[in-house]
Amino acid sequence: MDHRAEFDHLVRDRLGVTAASQVMWSGPRLICIAGDFTRYDVHAVREHRRSIDLVRYRLFGRDLLGLETVASVSGGMQVSRRARRQAVARAEADVQRVAMPELAGAVDEVLLGLGDGVNRVERKTYRAYQRLRNFACVCPPQRSKLLVYLKVDPKDVDLVPGFTRDVSGLGHHGTGDLEVQLRTPRDVERAQDLFRASYAAA
């Protein structure tokens, strides 16, 4: 509110006179977006008597941005943790509803593009990609990741926690001893050498 004139000038320069005339000063809100905040930032916001949101962002690959409200104060009243959790959960659910089917589509395109002889077979609990035999099995998308099982010996791979896992001897849908966990388009790119190795071995 101490910089109202400067804000009006900025809006007028960027968006025009009409937009500047439509700014409502009766209930201003400040939204701070950053990679992270300290506990001192959160404390300072809670001490204010203004409407302020601290929003943390995370980048997932090149095309996906996640937002989480760290603190939200409305006219000096802190928004309840439960309401904040519900808002974040709704936002995450919206992102995941879009992201996971798109990720599954990208994996499907990559696996089918490995060669002319690739067949896709729908099973009850997974989708199999086969040449003479299965070389990849893709399970239905989970809330935040897509699991792919490959016919690759885990001993031949530098396992990366959260990305690749040795599941030989563990029960799971589909066939293959190497589990690949995909969360972002970048993970699909990282997995392409593994996809090709499994295809070559089939």
Offer a quick outline of the entry:
The protein has 202 residues and is of the alpha+beta class. It is 37% helix and 27% strand. The chain has 2 domains: 4-79, no CATH class; 105-201.
Mind explaining what this structure looks like?
It is built from 5 helices and 10 strands. It is of the alpha+beta class and 202 residues long. It has 2 domains: 76 residues, no CATH class; 97 residues. About 2% of the residues have low confidence.
Beta-strand content estimate: 25-35%
Spell the H/E element sequence: HHEHEEEHEEEEEEH
Low-confidence stretches: 94-98
Derived structural class:
alpha+beta
Shape: elongated
Strands, total number: 10
Q: How many domain units?
A: 2
Distance between the termini: 67 Å
Averaged pLDDT: 80
Number of helices: 5
InterPro entries: DUF5655 (IPR043714)
Protein name: DUF5655 domain-containing protein
